[in-house]
Write a structure and sequence with these properties.
DNA Primase, Chain A; 5 strands; about 30% helix; CHC2-type zinc finger protein
Length: about 120
């Protein structure tokens, strides 16, 4: 499972940078780029369209449709990281800090002397 942030991050990855980095042979024209192996596949403005198959989309769609990868594999390839494991609980582990604190059941010793009450300084 991937977060909304990770999916948004993938949508901003440059398709042209990706295909160049993967070693695809490209044909550059004045307004777009085509794959040499499939000249009906056009890349322009971070989108692609494969006219002979009538499919297209963004960078993530390119991996899913053209490279025939599953969603999770495509996300992992683009992000370089795995998503959230759905089988693990989605909370942070609570680590208890060890403090020296008194328990509520431990009360101070009772002072049976009322002597201290009578000799409270009153500032005279």
């Amino acid at each position: 499972m991937y977060t909304k942030y990770q999916i948004a991050k993938v949508q901003n990855i440059s398709l042209l940078d990706y295909v160049e980095g993967r070693g695809y042979e490209l044909i550059y024209s004045h307004s777009d780029v085509r794959l040499k192996e499939h000249d009906s596949l056009v890349i322009s403005n971070n989108k692609w369209k494969w006219f002979s198959r009538n499919i297209g989309g963004g960078t993530l769609d390119f991996l899913i449709e053209y490279e025939v990868r599953g969603f999770k594999e495509a996300m992992q390839t683009l992000l370089g990281e795995k998503g959230i494991d759905e089988n693990k609980p989605q909370y942070k582990e609570h680590i208890e800090e060890q403090h020296e604190s008194k328990k509520l059941s431990e009360l101070p010793y009772k002072n049976n002397s009322s002597f201290s009450i009578f000799f409270i300084p009153i500032g005279i």
